[in-house]
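Collaborator request, handled under Task 6.
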Amino acid sequence: MGERDTTSPNEITAGQEFTARQSRARLLPRVLLVGLLSGGVAVAFRFSLHQAEELREALLVSGGRGWLQFLLHWLAATAATALAIFLVRKVSPAAGGSGIPHLKAVLLHMRRFLPLPVLFVKFVGGILAMGCGLALGREGPTIQMGGATGKLAGKMMGMTQDERFILIAAGAGAGLSAAFNAPLAGLVFVLEEIQRAFHRRIFFATLLASVVADTVSRMALGQQPVFSIPSYPIPSLGLLPVFLLLGVFSGVAGAAFNSALVRSLDIVPRIIPNRNILILAAVAGLSVAAAGTISPELTGSGHSLTQGALMGKHALGGLALILAVRMVLTVVSYSTGAPGGIFAPLLVLGSCGGLAVGLLGQRYYPIAIPDAGIFAVVGMAALFSATVRAPLTGIVLVIEMTGEHTQMLPLLVACLTGFLVADHLGSHPIYHTLMERELDDYRHRMEEEARAEREEITDVPGVK
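C-alpha cells returned to the collaborator:
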C-alpha cells in the first residue's frame, strides 16, 4: 500500500493563506503605484478633453453662423478625425475604437500588449476624435490606458507574467473608477465583464487600485457625482410593471444598437475602398457638422443631454430627435476606428429612452408617475445591461454616478429584464463581439505580414 497522507486540511489552508498574504504584500506597493498612475492619466485626459471641447466651441462661435459655420465645423472635424485615424493605423492599431475588446483579449492571453504606443495614441487620438465632436466616450479609452499603466508598472518592476496580468486588470478598473468617480463599478466591471471570473488577488488589486485612482480624481476634479439629479422619491410597487416595460424597451434597443454598430463595421469596408482615411474622416466630419447645425449639444460625448434627461428637462418630441441623431452619429463615429468608447453614447441613449418611457407613462398614469426623471436614471443602467450584458456593473455604475440609492428595486427589475430580452433576441454582448472581430483582424494582419516577409525573402537573389 502507498504511504498515507497525514497532512490535515487546516495545515493546507494555513499554508495557502500564508502564500496569499505574501502575494498581497508583494503586490501592494505596485498596485498603489498603478492606482496613482491610472488616476493621474485619467485626470489629465479628462482635463485635456475639456480644453479641446472648449476650443471647438470657441472656433464655432468665431466662425459666425450659417454655411460658414457649417463648413468650418466640417473641415475641423474632418482634419482632426483623419489625424486620429492615421495615428491608430500607423502607430498602434490596438488603440482604435473602445479599447476594452483589446484589453479582454490581452487578459485571455490572445493578444500582445504594447503599452507605450497605446497610451500615446489613445490619449492624443482620443482628444482629437472626441474633441472635434465625434459621438464617442472617454471611458473606454481611460480603461485601456489604465490597463497600459498596469502593464508598464509590472514590466518596470520585474513582476512575473501572472502578476503583470493582475496589474493590467487593476489598472483597467482604476481607469473606470477615475473616469466616473465610481470605484465599486471599476471593480465589478473587471470581474463581471473584462475578467469574467473571480480571483482573490485580482479582486484585492482592482479594488485597491480603483480606490486610489478615485481619490486622485476627486482631489483634482472634486467629489461631486458625475451627474447631479434631484432627490427622487422611492417609486411605489405599483410602478414595477412600467419599469418592466422599460426593461423590455431597453432589451430591444440594446439588441438594435449592437446590430447597427456591428453591421456598420461590415458595411464601411464595402462602400469605402480600403477604408480610405480621408473619405472616412470626411463622412464623419459631415455627420458631426450636420448634427451640430441642429444643436451643438448633439455632438461630442453628450454629457449635457444625459444631464438634461436625468433632470426631466427634455420634451417627448425632442427626445425622438435626440435618439435618432445620436444613434446615427454614434454608429458613424465608431465605424471610423478612431479612439473612443461607447459608454457615454449608451448613457445618452439610455437616459433619453428611459425618460421617453416615463413621459409616455405619465400620459396614462399621471398620478402614479409624479416624475418621469426616475425612468431616465433606470434607463441608463437598463440599456447598458442589455448592450454589454453586465447588469451588476450597470446598476453599481448608475448608483455611483448619480448618488441615487433609492431606486434599487426598479434598477434590478429593468436591468434583468433588458438582459433577458436582449439575450432572447439572440444579441451577443457587444464587447465580446467586438473582441472576436478584433482577433480576426489581428490574425489577418499577421498573415499578411508573414506573407509579405516570405515574398521579400524569395525576391533576394540566390534565395529560392
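The cover message to the collaborator said: "The mean pLDDT is 88. The first helix runs from residue 9 to 62. Please let us know whether this matches your experimental observations."
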